[in-house]
Structures are given as C-alpha cells and as structure tokens.
Design a protein that fits this description.
This protein is of the alpha+beta class. It has one helix and eleven strands, in the order H-E-E-E-E-E-E-E-E-E-E-E. The strands form three sheets. Strands 1, 2, 3, 4 and 9 form a five-stranded antiparallel sheet that branches. It has a four-stranded antiparallel sheet with strand order 7-6-10-11, with no helix packed on it. The longest helix is centred in the first third of the chain and has 37 residues.
Length: about 190
C-alpha cells in the first residue's frame, strides 16, 4: 500500500514539475534576451568607422559639397471648367470644384477632377469611380483612381477622379451617371503641353 501511495503522489506532482520547468525555462530565456539587449553578453557591435577628415589649409577654405540637383517636376496646369458646375442627377447633386492636367508619362497626361457629391436622399449613397467616364472621341474611358466613398443621407463629400489620356488630347467630355440619369460636360484642355 505504501508503494501505491508513493507512485500516486509522484504522478500527481508530474504536471506540477512540468509547469515549473516550463516557467523556469521561460524566465531564463527572458533573462538571456535582456542581457543581450543591454550588451552584457554576446558580441558587441563594431564601432562605426570615423569619417575621413579633410585637411584644410589656413589660406583657402575647402568648398562645400554641391547639393544634388533635383530634376524639375513637370508642371501641372488648371483646366478651365464650364460656367455651369453643378449638376443634379436623380437624388444627388455633383459639383465640379477644380481640374488639373499634368504629365503622367511621355505619351500620357493625367486629368484630375475634384468633385463634390451632395446626397439629397434619406439613405446613404455611393460616391465612386463607377459614376464617371471620360469620353475621348466618343469612346468612354474609365478612371484610374480608386474613389469609393459612402455619403451619408443629406450630406456631402468631396473626392478626386483621375483619368489618363493621350498627350495630344485637347477636348474631352466628362460623363456623370447616377441613378437612371446622366450628363455630358465638355472640358477644354487647351493649355500648351
């Protein structure tokens, strides 16, 4: 009977021994990490090489190093918007705020149009790229931006729609579609590029 009690008590303490061993191992590993971080153990980081010192003569100061010349960014220019800038379609009102044209690649320009959408409805509405197309010679072109906003009921939000177009393009039409309605807005891009 004494042997049974000894073996029973040993098996009852085995989970306790395993837990204790695990805790001690974790504490020891944490101590090693802390000692390594403060630099008490492990190889120290090599010191940074000193910067070479230039000899300076007392009569001639050494010239300051030339700053790198940044390439001039191609300039963007504003696009003249039509007099009528507010368009009511179904339960929304779209207002053209501004438009700029800037070089995108050697062959293409980027047309960025800033638009405000007023949701006149009693529930939320999407304000997204799907509502806009640029008509180039009668062919609709989708925007390259990622406008995708939710406009709360009886609220407004502003967003930008970005189109890529051939460099020689002078006139385009912006198509706005919402609900079952749409409108075409002529835009003259005529500044020299």
């Amino acid at each position: 009977m004494a042997d049974e009690e000894k073996s029973k008590s040993w098996w009852q303490t085995l989970p306790g021994l395993i837990a204790s061993l695990t805790a001690a191992t974790t504490a020891f590993a944490g101590l090693l990490v802390a000692l390594k971080q403060v630099g008490w153990i492990g190889s120290p980081q090599p010191p940074a090489a000193p910067a070479p010192q230039q000899q300076q003569s007392s009569s001639t100061p050494s010239p300051a190093p030339a700053a790198p010349v940044a390439a001039a960014a191609p300039a963007s220019h504003p696009v003249t918007l039509p007099e009528l800038r507010e368009y009511k379609l179904d339960t929304a009102t779209f207002t053209l705020l501004s438009a700029t044209l800037s070089p995108q690649t050697a062959e293409k320009d980027a047309l960025r149009i800033q638009i405000r959408m007023m949701n006149n409805n009693s529930y939320d509405a999407n304000f997204w790229d799907r509502s806009f197309r640029l008509m180039l010679d009668g062919v609709p072109v989708a925007p390259e931006s990622d406008l995708n906003e939710l406009v709360p009921a009886r609220s407004a939000k502003e967003g930008a729609v970005l189109f890529a177009l051939p460099r020689a393009t002078a006139n385009v039409k912006l198509e706005i579609s919402y609900g079952n309605e749409q409108t075409l807005i002529p835009l003259a891009l005529g500044a020299p590029r």
